[in-house]
Write a structure and sequence with these properties.
Blueprint: E1 5-10, H1 20-30, E2 38-44, H2 47-54, E3 60-67, E4 77-82, H3 99-104, E5 116-122, H4 134-153, E6 163-165
Amino acid sequence: MTGRVLVAGIGNLFLGDDGFGPEVVRRLAAGGSPPPGVRVLDYGIRGMHLAYDLLDGWDTLILVDALPATSGPPGQVIVREIRPGDLEPGDFDAHGMQPLAVLGSLTAMGGKLPPTVVVGCPVESTREGIGLSPAMSAAVPAAIDIVLDLLDRLPLTEPLTERGRP
């Protein structure tokens, strides 16, 4: 691996499965020190914090997040590369987290989107309450393995193809 990599867990842990990203990065960080040049951080719903941190010039961004239920079956980990054309133009809520809107704001803030990969999992439920559903909880180890695999493969020399993993 070369360069600086930010692994960002995003989501609201008070809304059930939306806490997937924070749970993955919490367990990833608990597994030991990341490799040199890698920062693992739970951003929760702090979109502005993530946007400002991205202005520091990261070489790669790995977002870990819950995905809409329409993305696939709960518990299936999906890897997707994000390209500039995927970003949502316009405003974002400084107190919320709409990842594509946050990333889309980088140019206006004087930054540049680094090569970005999302490691996500479709939600089963975003009910109020702390804790993941059984399907999402079971997907956490697979998501950690995928993040570690991505870190081993950096720099990514060829575009990723979207893939799913139970």
